[in-house]
Amino acid sequence: xxxxxxxxxxxxxxxxxxxxxxxxxxxxxxxxxxxxxxxxxxxxxxxxxxxxxxxxxxxxxxxxxxxxxxxxxxxxxxxxxxxxxxxxxxxxxxxxxxxxxxxx
Length: 104
What we know:
Elements (H helix, E strand, L loop, with lengths): L9 H10 L4 E5 L2 E4 L4 E5 L6 E6 L5 H17 L3 E4 L3 E6 L4 E6 L1
Parallel strand pairs: 4-5
Antiparallel strand pairs: 1-2, 2-3, 3-4, 6-7
Helix pairs in contact: 1-2
């Protein structure tokens, strides 16, 4: 094992996601996308034990409150250190068929 390498608790996060009734759609680097664009998860690169919950700026406040409450409660059951972080926005580039995430 490489000295200083810290493993991310992906298995615990997967249990949390599936236990909450969602499924992982895609994982890229430190980001985990679920089958719902209302929110994403991001591993903290400084402390991989912490996972940030970020909501799409288009998520309605009532939905955000309900989802964050449910996910934070489920995180306790799964022993995941989930923290509510700033929102994000998706900017699409249709010419290149790519998108950019902008953290607020």
